[in-house]
Each structure stands twice: as structure tokens, then as C-alpha cells.
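Bug #2210: C-alpha cell dump truncated for DUF488 domain-containing protein?
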Amino acid sequence: MSKQTPTIEIARVYDSPKSAKGYRVLVDRLWPRGVKKEDLKLDDWLKEIAPSDKLRKWFDHDVDKWDEFRERYKKELKANRDLINSLLETAEKQSVVLLYAAKDEAHNNAVVLKEFLEQTRE
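Reproduced locally. Full output below:
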């Protein structure tokens, strides 16, 4: 990846907005608990790019299901080409920050989405 290519980052919605600058997009299907919309400094909320309710409930943040969750979610993302392409177009112009609410910073949908976006744009 060249230095001119804008970055794709992930950040928790509960972290300071100053910690991650760029086009800030919430990628969770549900609004995060205890967060006011005006406090989030959000550019967009792409509920449709989040894991389906069925997949989200099945995964239930169980680390033992992580590998299977990643594969299933990537299949859902492949079927959601319009949103993926839109995010990639934005990422060509400016850095994108994928916001999520999960407590686990290593095992959540934003991690998979970032990986998918980066692999798709290569």
C-alpha cells in the first residue's frame, strides 16, 4: 500500500473521536448503548453492512466461533457489493474510520470488515 492511499482504521464508539480522524462510519446494526447521536461525531451509519441479525445472534461474541463468524460474515459482505464499493470509493479520497461498540477489540465485525475492504482494494 502506498503512502498516498488513505487508511482504513477501526475504533470503538466509546473512544475519543480525536483518536481516529477521517470519514467516521458506524458499522453496527444496533445503536451503541449509552451514546448520544450528537456525541458520536458520525458521518454515516451503515446498518446494512453489519452482520445480519441471525449471524450476530449466532456469534454472540463467542471467541470460539470467531473463525466461522469471519467466514460467514465475509460471505454476507460479498453479497453487499454496492455498500462495499461505496466505502472503497470513500476510502480512495479520505481515511475511513469503522466504528463499532463491541468490548472485544480483536473479535468484532469491524475487524472483519476492515480486512475485507483492504483485501478487496488490493
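Output looks complete on our side. The chain has one domain: 8-121. Marking as cannot-reproduce; reopen if the truncation happens again.
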